[in-house]
Design goal:
Elements (H helix, E strand, L loop, with lengths): L9 E4 L5 H12 L3 E5 L4 H14 L4 E4 L6 H14 L5 E4 L14 H29 L1 E7 L12 H21 L9 E9 L8 H8 L6 H12 L8 H12 L10 E4 L7
Parallel strand pairs: 1-2, 1-4, 2-3, 4-5, 5-6, 6-7
Bound molecules: nicotinamide-adenine-dinucleotide.
């Protein structure tokens, strides 16, 4: 892909040391952006992620290890990121965690952590990033929600609450910036992507739990998970979510605003 449509632009992807975040950062790097990688990771994982985005074509790369459960840490990260290249055109709120238990059994601390990381962190990053985007007449906020921002599943109370909240927050922000800029400048848009089952570390414990029914066979565990909810019976690759994010960053996407785009093998069509 040689279309450098993000040359001169800077993108922060939270939770991009691995998984969906790294795939999105890699795809935005292919379009020539300066990339801010972020997450909680080992030094080896950080070097590897940096090398991956540079090899993909990033103009420059930096890494932040801010703990996004802490508003003070987010504030410091956003100051550093905004100063790095004189602004931030693309913000992808992707960092997220999961914990499965019934509402009755869910530890209160897990509720607090999931709401802080999966929802409140996006409020804080958006609050810091939007003024510069509005001033430039161009900006893209992409919030990685989930099918669980559109429909519920048992055992996922805080996760579903956070993702529904993220969808709502994105719609509000989209309304507030809808008239900014022009077709030529690209405007400012705020959208969600709603993945179904996607091959990352996040879903491994859930596959492992199912695999136990099949003598530990992970492939059969995955099939069991898919057949319950995802009619395509196929997972998504993280790179496929990266393609959707890149599409939303195009100038021509100025009027795609306030949507939640499922990548879910028809899960939410049921
Ligand atoms: P992952 O576990 O591979 O990556 C999560 C990232 O978030 C990591 O880089 C981690 O360091 C970072 N992170 C977690 N807590 C953090 C904290 N307190 N401070 C800073 N960074 C933190 O997971 P993934 O599957 O790539 O998930 C990415 C996003 O996609 C999440 O928001 C998740 O809810 C969403 N999602 C994933 C799936 C799926 O099937 N994998 C489906 C729907 C939605």
């Amino acid at each position: 892909m040689s279309d450098l449509f993000l040359k001169g632009k800077t993108a922060l992807v939270t939770g991009s040391a691995q998984g969906i975040g790294l795939a999105i950062a890699t795809r935005l790097a292919q379009a020539g952006a300066n990339i801010v990688l972020h997450g909680l990771a080992s030094p080896e994982q950080i070097s590897e992620a940096k090398a991956t985005v540079m090899a993909a074509g990033a103009t420059d790369v930096m890494f932040s290890d801010a703990d996004v459960s802490q508003p003070v840490a987010i504030e410091a990260m956003m100051k550093q990121v905004l100063a790095w290249k004189g602004g931030l055109e693309i913000l992808v709120n992707n960092a997220g965690i999961q914990h499965t238990a019934s509402v009755v059994d869910m530890p209160a601390a897990k509720w607090e952590a999931i709401i802080a990381i999966n929802l409140s962190s996006a409020f804080h990053t958006m609050q810091a990033a939007l003024p510069g985007m509005i001033e430039k007449g161009f900006g893209r906020i992409i919030n990685i929600a989930s099918v669980h921002g559109l429909v519920a599943s048992a055992q996922k109370g805080p996760y579903v609450a956070a993702k529904f909240g993220l969808v709502g927050l994105s719609k509000v922000a989209a309304l507030e910036v809808a008239a900014v800029g022009s077709r030529e400048s690209g405007g400012v848009t705020v959208n969600c992507i709603a993945p179904g089952w996607t091959e990352t570390a996040l879903i491994a414990p859930q596959i492992l739990a199912r695999a136990a029914k099949y003598g530990g066979d992970m492939k059969l565990g995955e099939q069991d998970l898919l057949k319950e909810k995802q009619p395509s019976l196929r997972t998504s690759a993280p790179s496929e979510i990266g393609e959707v994010a890149a599409m939303l960053c195009q100038t021509w996407a100025h009027n795609i605003n306030g949507i939640t785009l499922p990548v879910d093998g028809a899960w939410t069509s049921q």
